[in-house]
Design goal:
homodimer; 206 residues; Rossmann fold; 46% helix
Chain lengths: 206, 206
């Protein structure tokens, strides 16, 4: 029962927390994973590939999918739609994979609400706001107003950190990687309540 | 924050599920653990040592401790009191240890209720009732009426399996050991909500 069923690992954390590097670590260590790719109506940035970084949809198509109840969660942020299609997630769970979400606090909430019993949630953060500022500035990829917006969002998201199952303070990447692997390996073991109840029913008869 | 705070691992499962062997595995792998020893008013059996298998108390002392609110949980089962003193658990948590409980469903419920945010719970079971019957009979340590009572209790406890965070089906001990180590390593990472909230408060100022 333990090893064949799919499960969900939700990862949240501010841009600059090192979340992407840690997701890379998880992908390396958990063979049978499916990394959920969000859909969005925002324009692709330089270097972003459709179907890799996002599924880029126009607004008409996105709204149609909302109407058809095709999203596990979606949100309208800074003038653009972002969402997670439910079909590939269901398929990956059926295939027994660990489905990994890189998602904001609001989205994480929606996933936990809908898939609670097989969901493990992790919040990744820097040790301090000043560290986050430093990391965002030193990347040199974002304009100051983008950085300011990210910092503001980070403060908002961090205030809801205690809603997560685990917290990873990414001070040292090697240490954080060790922690995230432990969490991912355990997350893999979650079993849907429905399946447990079936097992219980069969247990007495066998 | 992650590595220095204590956490709780609650293990339940019928007698004959191999729970004791798996607890041995956890003790070997998690260096800084504290295995919670229950107190009881029942007489010590052959080979049982006071302070190792149980703290054996007389009824007067046990009732006094109940009155003094010294128990994290207690119960009256088959004519005897069983309970967990709170003081050593608090001390072990303060020392940053993983506190391991071998406890029935009712006790697990009480611990989760009181220490929820740092508690991970695991139910250990045989793949089937017939396997459990076979294991209990082949041990040759218990009289038939004791075995019957254990089987009856097992059926009652297993019906509440889905209340646990993780299920371990102990079909093959090596495989179950691998699973339980994964769960224990992750359980170690739970952080009290209070501590997370303190971190959040400091985060913006630092």
């Amino acid at each position: 029962m333990n090893t064949n069923s799919g499960a969900i690992l939700v990862l949240s954390g501010p841009s600059g927390s090192g979340k992407s590097s840690l997701i890379g670590v998880i992908k390396e260590h958990i063979g049978d994973h499916y990394f959920s790719i969000s859909s969005t109506t925002r324009a692709a940035r330089d270097g972003e590939i459709d179907g890799v970084h996002y599924h880029f949809l126009d607004e008409k198509r996105f709204k149609q999918e909302i109407e058809d109840d095709q999203f596990l969660e979606y949100a309208f942020v800074h003038g653009n739609y972002y969402g997670t299609s439910i079909a590939p997630v269901k398929q990956a769970l059926k295939d027994g994979k660990l489905v990994i979400f890189d998602i904001d606090v609001q989205g994480a909430d929606a996933v936990k609400h809908r898939m609670g019993d097989i969901t493990t949630s992790v919040f990744i953060t820097t040790p301090s706001l000043s560290t986050l500022k430093k990391r965002l500035s030193s990347r040199g990829t974002d304009a100051q107003d983008v950085i300011d917006r990210r910092l503001e969002m980070a403060c908002r998201e961090i205030s809801r950190m205690s809603e997560y199952d685990y917290i990873v303070i990414n001070d040292d990447l090697d240490h954080a990687a060790k922690i995230i692997i432990r969490v991912a390996l355990a997350a893999r073991l979650k079993v849907p309540t429905l399946q447990i109840n079936e097992f219980v029913q069969q247990w007495e008869q066998s």
